[in-house]
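In these records, each integer encodes one residue's backbone shape. Here is one protein:

___
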Amino acid sequence: MPNGYCPGMLTNFGDWILTSPTEEVYFLDALEGTLDRIAPSETALNQLLLDAENRNRWFMADWVGICHNRGLILKSGQCFGWKLHPVFGGKFKFENIQVFDILVYQCLVGQLLGQLRSKPSEFIVTGVHLQSRQE
């Protein structure tokens, strides 16, 4: 998180709405690993959230509804996340969603996206290799 930014909201999918020192509003996307300005102020954000398309874009409201309708409910300290992250080819379907501890999910996704950020744009993930610390 950039220096001086304050967390405003945490979404059910582990994304953050942040406020900058100049009170602009940013979206920290756990899916893409991006930080984008979404509104000039919290008041403007509240207006933008009246639009269902924006609620789906930033809060994944449709997916949250699907999860709830199928019995996947969050407890305090949890978020929804992707069993197989889409950067590895995970599909955008209910069967690929599970409940995670929010800290664990953000650490995993943060490390994954942080490592990919250092790769060239044409870089494609073709697999994952796990090894024990003894190897």
